[in-house]
C-alpha cells in the first residue's frame, strides 16, 4: 500500500518535472543563442541548403553553392528542417545541443564510460564540429544503428563512414548471403537513385564546390591509404566494425578537421587510449597556432 502511494506521488510530480525541464531547455537555448559565435557551416551551408530544399530548389545548384557550398547527401538535410525554420541563432543553439547529445549517445553505445564521453566531447575534432555548426554527428550516429538504417546516416558524409558500409557489406554476405545484402542495401540504393532523378548526378555537382574549402583540407591522403586499407581488412577479418570507423578519413582525399571525430569515436571503449589520442590532438592544435 505504501509503495502504491509513493508511486502515485511520483506520478503526480512527473508533469512538474517535465515542465521544469522544458523551461530549463528553453532558457539554455536562449542563453546559447545570445552568446554563441556564428557557426559558419550552419549559417553559410546547411541552413541555406535546407531552406533551398524546402523551397523546392536544388541544394546543389550553383545559385545556392555560391552562398552555401553544400556537398553532402540531400537526405541529411531532413532532420535539420525544424532547426532551419527557427531564427538562425536559435537554430544554431539547438543544433549544438542535438550534436552534443548525439556525440555522447554514440560514444556511450560504443562502450565509453562517463569519463570517456567527456574526453571525447572535449576532443579538438568534436569541438571543431560544434563551434562551426557542422553535422558530423549524423554519420557517427549511424555507426551505432542497425546497418539498414545506419547506411542512411553514414552516406550523408561518406568521407566519415563509407568504410563502415564496406564492413557491413561483408558482414551481410557472411550472415545471409546475397539475400541479406539486398535487404540491407536496397533501401539506401533506391533513395540514392531517387536523389539522382530529383537533383541530377549531384556527386559531380558537389565536387564543384570543394575548391572553395580546399584551404581547410585536413586529409593526409595519399600517405594514409595503407593505414585505411589495413583498418578495413582488420575490421572484416576480426569482425570488429570499430576498426573500419577510422578507415574512411584515411582513404578520403578531402576531409575537414572535424571528420576525424569518426576515427576518434572508435576508441570510446578504451578510455586511456582515447585520452592519449585527445591529448595528442590538442598538442597538434597548439603547435599549429605557434
- The geometry reads as globular
Residues in helices, as a percent range: over 70%
Number of helices: 16
SS content category: mainly alpha
Beta-strand proportion: under 5%
Q: Main β-sheet, in a few words?
A: none
End-to-end distance, in Å?
Answer: 68 Å
Average pLDDT taken over every residue: 85
Q: Return the string of H and E elements.
A: HHHHHHHHHHHHHHHH
- Strand element count: 0
Task: Describe the protein.
The protein is mostly helical. It has a domain at 98-289. Helix content is 71%, strand content 0%. The chain has 16 helices and no strands. Helix 8 (137-143) crosses helix 10 (158-199). The protein is globular and about 50 Å long. The model is unreliable at 1-11 (pLDDT under 50).
Topology at a glance:
Layout: H1 2-35, H2 40-54, H3 62-65, H4 81-84, H5 88-109, H6 114-121, H7 124-132, H8 137-143, H9 147-154, H10 158-199, H11 202-207, H12 225-238, H13 241-245, H14 247-250, H15 261-264, H16 271-289
Helix pairs in contact: 1-5, 5-6, 5-8, 6-16, 8-9, 8-10, 9-10
Keywords:
290 residues; mainly alpha; 16 helices
In short:
By secondary structure, the protein is an all-alpha fold. 71% of the residues lie in helices and 0% in strands.
